[in-house]
Amino acid sequence: MSDHKPIADATARARALAPDRSFIVQAPAGSGKTELLTQRYLRLLSCVDHPEEIVAITFTRKAASEMRNRVLGALERAKDPRPEKANEAATWDLARAALARDSAMGWNVSATPERLRVGTIDSFCAALSRQMPTLSRLGAPPAIAQDADGLYREAARELIARIESDEAVSASIERLLQHLDNDLPKV
Question: Half-sphere exposure of 133 toward its Cβ, with a 13 Å CA cutoff?
């Protein structure tokens, strides 16, 4: 007799592993979200040409680190005998397939874990902005400001300066003020 009840959302979890579909995973703490995302990541690793094609984004560095560690840990455990528990065995199967792809493609992800693109929304956006061409006149590589108040004031000053010289900007500000009943603090 099994000590484990069947998982109520097992069908949805299985669908979430389909590499040709996108999913949003919402569930309370302790429900297995990270394990499901780890399984999806491993499934994707088994069918891509390069591990960098997969991007896993979360809100915090802690969550991103945990996700990366789970993927790497699953790949390491896939070298051991297959576990008996169903969910652990499913992860093991997916990790074995990912290891087979890793070997066939010569990625060597275990030795080069930086190839796994698991990070925060901020780090993803920063990586995108660093790829901006020089012609964009973006200037120095952008950085995340911890206190953006000074930047907001600078943007407001520049906008006010443009109002007098750019009729399109002036008309847009006029429409915004009308829409917000001339509530300047709100604007």
Answer: 2
Contact between residue 95 and residue 42 where contact means Cβ atoms under 8 Å apart: yes
57: phi then psi, degrees, rounded to nearest 5:
-120, 135
Quote the radius of gyration of the chain (alpha carbons, Å): 24
pTM: 0.70
144-184 per-position pLDDT tens digit? 778 889 998 898 888 888 887 888 888 888 888 888 898 88
Which residue has 């840990």 as its token pair?
A: 73
Pairing of strands 55-58, 117-120: parallel
d(CA 160, CA 66): 45
- What is the spatial distance between Cα 82 and Cα 69, in angstroms, rounded to a whole number? 20
Burial 46-85 (b: 16+ CB within 10 A, else e): beeeebeebebbbeeeebbeebbebbbebbebbeeeeeee
What span, in angstroms and rounded, lies between the C-alpha atoms of 27 and 120? 19
